[in-house]
Amino acid sequence: MTAGLPDPAGFPDCPVCAYVLTGTARLCSDCAGRTLQPVAEPHCPVCSQALAPGRPCGNRLCTMPQQRRGFSRVDAVAMYSGALRDKIHKLKYEGKAGWAMIFGRLLVGWMESHPEQMRGVDYVVGNPTHTGRQPLQHIEAIMDAAYAEDVTRAFPLSPPGIHRLVKQAETPRPASRTLDEKRAAATAHAAALTWTGDTGDIKGATILLVDDVFTSGSQLQHVALRLRASGAADVRGLVLARVPWSG
């Protein structure tokens, strides 16, 4: 992978890796892929949940027609476990901003290695956090990092500080809530979002909606439905981590 040069340190030892500053998205994503828990095979083609042999997906969203579900599919870089879970928490709740750069590389590396899923995408946008979120707006930090890591401008990411979706009002957080409470929080979250570009831009567009973690999919569903109602033709999801969930 790096002939004649030091081997990458491996995820999660990224802070001490020889390539922490100079590494490419492909290098870092390939390196992390050796240690992250991959999405299981077989998995649901809609929500990426692991499937038991001969059994359908237990996520109720996957049985809905796409117009009610909002998104056509959600892909994940890896499963929400071990070191990845820990480092997402470091960024999200402790403000360890250096992990935004690494996660930006992982996202861009996934995009580079999945051209079939990126075909036809008009906008790559983050599922936004509240503008006053503390310790930081982690999704926005990841999206800004992803733009910086996309050195060839191969993907329709927005420059740092420019975000197609913004969230001006704070709403209840879905973590550690019942499924019904998560759905109510997801509805409130989607209602608080604003598309900042020309409203005509969204008409007929294919949007890749990026988030850190996917559990039941309620929040992604409601954001996707909001985008579809505004004229988007297709909404796809991409998350850093897929939480094992039995519905």
What does this structure look like?
The chain is an alpha/beta fold and 247 residues long. It has one domain (14-242). The protein contains eight helices and six strands. The strands form two sheets. A four-stranded parallel β-sheet has the order 1-6-5-2. Helix 8 (218-229) links the parallel strand 5 (206-214) and strand 6 (234-242). Helix 1 crosses helix 4 and helix 4 (98-113) crosses helix 6. The protein is globular, with a radius of gyration of 17 Å. The termini are far apart. The model has no long low-confidence stretch (mean pLDDT 94).
Question: Which strand order do you get reading across the main beta sheet?
Answer: 1-6-5-2
Round the mean pLDDT to the nearest integer and report it.
Answer: 94
Low-confidence residue ranges:
none
Question: For the report, how would you describe the main beta sheet?
Answer: 4 strands, parallel
Q: Structural class per helix/strand content?
A: alpha/beta
Strand fraction equals: 5-15%
Please work out how many helical segments DSSP would assign: 8
Question: Looking at the structure, what is the overall shape?
Answer: globular
Q: Helix coverage percent of residues? A: 25-40%
How many domains is the backbone divided into? Answer: 1
Number of strands: 6
End-to-end Cα distance: 40 Å
Order of SSEs, N→C? HHEHHHEHEHEEHE
- Rg measurement, Å: 17 Å
